[in-house]
Write a structure and sequence with these properties.
Blueprint lengths: L12 E2 L2 H21 L5 E5 L5 H17 L2 E5 L7 H13 L5 E4 L9 H7 L11 H8 L8 H12 L8 E5 L6 H10 L3 E5 L6 H5 L4 E4 L17 E4 L3 E3 L2 H7 L7 H11 L2 E3 L4 H4 L4 E2 L7 H19 L4
Parallel strand pairs: 1-11, 2-3, 2-4, 5-6, 5-7, 7-8, 8-11
Antiparallel strand pairs: 9-10
Helix pairs in contact: 1-12, 2-12, 3-4, 6-7, 6-12
Bound molecules: guanine.
């Protein structure tokens, strides 16, 4: 199936993450049906500690998607005061459970919990986030691995949109363990020439201006300006930044672009809007780009579902 893409006034292709995510979720639902006929129901345990509002929204959405696609899910909500030892005991129980194929510990955890120890305690075979050092190592050495969901989603977008990767200059802004580093590894695996830029990089624009594929994952609203972009490049925006400030809003959406009116309506009704790490005016120079919202974001949950089904098959020797 190909996904129809809309174009902007400047003819950049909009990479519609909702459409790609729907496609992946439909494929997962099909897989789940086939497994059900064999008496197998992939199961995800989602662990949500405390009451961080953004984490609550994300985890609820993950559990709801499991229900929609026919996966089993178990939402476990330890209190904010939970200790590392109690969390380790919980992970050990989940590792041993036959009905659980994937274990997701929503990050960030409270500061008093040892995140590293916990992530290392998850069985690599159930590590659907791809955070365990064994999966990190497998990814780096090109072995089949459960890859982190957001970077895996980026690669899926490029693949499904038929955008070339091999031989392209890919620049990744940000070196986080969750997005930047694994995104760089996945792009390298597909034979891109990869550069990672970070807060200590000198003259970042000299790298980004040469990028055929630019992945921005630094959490700074509108950091990538039009002057930093190679015309025709593929721009992948992982940033999710909420802006409340009217002046900042007007700077992002001055009313000169056809999409600005819809933004202004959203801002007026909600008092905020979401922007990425790439300035909207930079998108106009792109060959293709992921909008914010509605670009990379929807892929993260879709890939979590795909990873859970994959883990269920791998654990049963079905892959
Ligand atoms: N917090 C922000 N992104 C993620 C993610 O992909 N997985 C988990 N477990 N926590 C997150």
């Amino acid at each position: 199936m190909t996904i129809s893409s809309s174009t902007t006034a400047t003819s950049a292709t909009v990479l519609n993450g909702n459409a790609f995510a729907a496609q992946i979720k439909a494929e997962v639902a099909e897989d789940v049906k086939v497994l059900a006929a064999q008496g197998i129901r992939p199961g995800l345990a989602a662990v949500l500690v405390g009451a961080v509002p953004a984490s609550q929204i994300y985890v609820r959405s993950k559990v709801r998607t499991c229900e929609q696609l026919g996966l089993y899910s178990d939402l476990i909500t330890p209190p904010e005061s939970v200790t590392t030892e109690e969390m380790l005991e919980l992970v050990a129980r989940l590792n041993a459970r036959e009905d659980i194929d994937g274990i997701l510990i929503q990050l960030p955890l409270p500061a008093h919990v040892n995140t590293k120890r916990l992530l290392e305690a998850v069985l690599p075979e159930k590590d659907v986030d791809g955070f365990h050092p064994v999966n990190v190592g497998r990814l780096q050495s090109g072995q089949p691995a459960l890859a982190p969901c957001t970077p895996a989603g980026i690669v899926e977008i490029l693949k499904r949109a038929n955008l070339p990767v091999a031989g392209q200059n890919a620049v990744v802004l940000g070196r986080s363990d969750i997005v930047g580093k694994p995104a760089a590894m996945l792009l390298l695996q597909q034979n891109a020439t990869v550069t990672i830029c970070h807060s200590k990089t000198r003259d970042i624009a000299s790298f980004t201006r040469n990028a055929d594929i630019l992945v921005a994952a630094i959490g700074r609203p509108g950091y990538v300006t039009p002057q930093m972009v190679k015309p025709g490049a593929t721009l992948i925006d992982v940033g999710i930044n909420r802006i409340h400030d009217r002046q900042l809003f007007d700077e992002f959406f001055p009313g000169t672009h056809p999409d600005d009116a819809a933004r202004a309506e959203m801002f007026a009704s909600k008092g905020h809007t979401i922007v990425g790490d790439i300035h909207p005016r930079a998108f106009e120079l792109a060959g293709a780009y992921t909008p914010v919202p509605g670009g990379v974001g929807p892929l993260t949950i879709a890939m979590l579902m795909a990873n859970t089904v994959r883990a269920a098959k791998l654990r049963r020797g079905l892959l």
